[in-house]
Design the sequence.
């Protein structure tokens, strides 16, 4: 079925249910408001577990007046489709990676992709739990999207089928990336060949050699079995993957106040939960990848880490015109990051 008509049918169904609610209140009142929450990762990941926690709390706090349907692993919408579906109201909740908002025209989020810009979760929280992060979410409003929260995944590692000890080891390698110009520039900077690809296509592309390597969090590697098609992982922690939990603004603002208040409460608690378990999930995944014996895991030496930082830091300057000098500066000020210190 053509993608557009599939979204439109879902849209008409949803709008009809909402439009009729007040008229036939007694009969339909029993019918819960359905929130479809679509995402592209597995259930046993920070985001997957966060979405299920939100479902549990939202249904409990609204005494069943709301039903949350979670669609994991791109089963409902793949990367590129999900934002359009949200804007059309065919799905009510998403949590795309901050790397995937460029196509929507909100380039500021790509600042999160700058290599080594966050030297840990504490620095990150100064942005995601502070005014800078709130200002970024507000930039979604004109797109008909409401930013509800930031959810963590973690810091990325690099992988390929040959050892990665220095940036030169990736020269000429085809590397899968998310749809971000900053990530494209990051790999071009070290003479690798970036390939934008939907998350759901990564395993097969590595298995068939369409791409040679990629970058991601270990939780995403393990839960998508990507480690089974990559012989070498280096724990570079060179960049960050996190999410913006978003909804359709008209839908959310149109909810009965009581319902919205309870959903906000559920979202607040699910956010604390998701961000608390994120590191744990990645640590567990790393042990599982190690135990699988399928992939050689390398911790870079201090000298190797410095070589990656030196090779990738110029991307910050090169991306000023794309992401915005003021945007990058706002992160530096919020976190105390000083590129000159490297
Ligand atoms: C990716 O495409 O690699 C990630 O954004 C997937 C995800 O949502 O963690």
Sequence:
């Amino acid at each position: 079925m053509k993608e557009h008509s599939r979204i439109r049918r879902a849209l008409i169904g949803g709008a009809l249910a909402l439009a009729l609610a007040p008229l036939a209140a007694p009969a339909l009142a029993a019918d819960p408001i359905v929130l479809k929450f679509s995402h592209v990762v597995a259930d046993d990941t920070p985001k997957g577990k966060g979405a299920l926690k939100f479902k549990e709390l939202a249904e409990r706090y609204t005494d069943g007046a709301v039903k949350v349907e979670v669609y994991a692993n791109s089963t409902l919408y793949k990367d590129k489709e999900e934002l359009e579906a949200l804007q059309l109201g065919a799905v009510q909740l998403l949590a795309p990676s901050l790397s995937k908002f460029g196509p929507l025209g909100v380039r500021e989020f790509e600042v999160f992709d700058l290599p080594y810009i966050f030297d840990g979760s504490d620095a990150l929280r100064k942005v995601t739990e502070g005014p800078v992060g709130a200002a970024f979410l507000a930039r979604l409003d004109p797109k008909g999207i409401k930013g509800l929260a930031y959810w963590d995944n973690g810091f990325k590692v690099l992988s390929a089928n040959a050892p990665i000890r220095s940036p030169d080891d990736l020269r000429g390698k085809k590397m899968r990336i998310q749809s971000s110009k900053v990530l494209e520039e990051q790999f071009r900077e070290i003479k690798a060949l970036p390939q934008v690809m939907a998350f759901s296509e990564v395993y097969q592309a590595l298995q068939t050699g369409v791409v040679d390597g990629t970058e991601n969090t270990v939780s995403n590697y393990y839960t998508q079995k990507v480690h089974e098609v990559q012989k070498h992982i280096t724990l570079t922690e060179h960049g960050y993957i996190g999410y913006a939990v978003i909804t359709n603004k008209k839908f959310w603002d149109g909810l009965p106040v009581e319902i919205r208040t309870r959903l906000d409460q559920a979202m607040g608690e699910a956010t604390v939960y998701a961000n608390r378990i994120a590191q744990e999930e990645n640590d567990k995944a790393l042990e599982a990848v190690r135990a699988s014996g399928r992939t050689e895991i390398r911790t870079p030496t201090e000298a190797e880490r410095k070589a990656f930082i030196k090779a990738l830091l110029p991307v910050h300057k090169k991306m000023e015109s794309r992401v915005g000098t003021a945007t990058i500066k706002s992160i530096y000020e919020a976190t105390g990051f000083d590129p000159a210190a490297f």
In short: The longest strand covers residues 145-155.
